Amino acid sequence: MSWLPDDFVHPVHVPVPDTALHLRPIREADTGIDYPAVMGSRERLWEIFGPAWAWPQETMTYEEDRIDLLRHEKEIAAHQSFNYALLNEEETALLGCVYIDPPERTGSDGEVSWWVVDDLVGGEAESALDALVPQWIAADWPFQRPRYLGRDITWQDWLALPRAS
Fold this sequence. Notes:
Layout: E1 14-15, E2 22-25, H1 31-40, H2 42-53, H3 62-77, E3 82-87, E4 94-101, E5 110-116, H4 124-140, E6 146-148, H5 155-160
Parallel strand pairs: 5-6
Antiparallel strand pairs: 1-2, 2-3, 3-4, 4-5
Helix pairs in contact: 1-3
């Protein structure tokens, strides 16, 4: 059994209210704007995602990022997991990501996490994204018990949960 209904159609463009930003599924072609966003915020991202995902490595190369984005693009196409890029209107800057994944730990039917680049931390764009994501998941995704990693459960508490079967 899949983690999503067979007829589920994932959103392809999600405006972030009160901003000029939007979300769309990430692509390999985004490497040129993803790599500087990730590496420019790498230390803070490692503090968030490092213990769980060992990402982003200090030594991550452009080519490793490209391969990672290609994997994400293929997973999105197969509805295995989703990585949405937070982009400016022209799609010339990647400013963060939203991840929507099947549950790795017990107690939820979808696991959601997100980040913004260091320059947006504490600002209006981050607040708008923080408000949007749970509303968007509730409105457009078929989850009954989504879990917001680092939001409604700490990463440490999440890692302590039993693995989903």
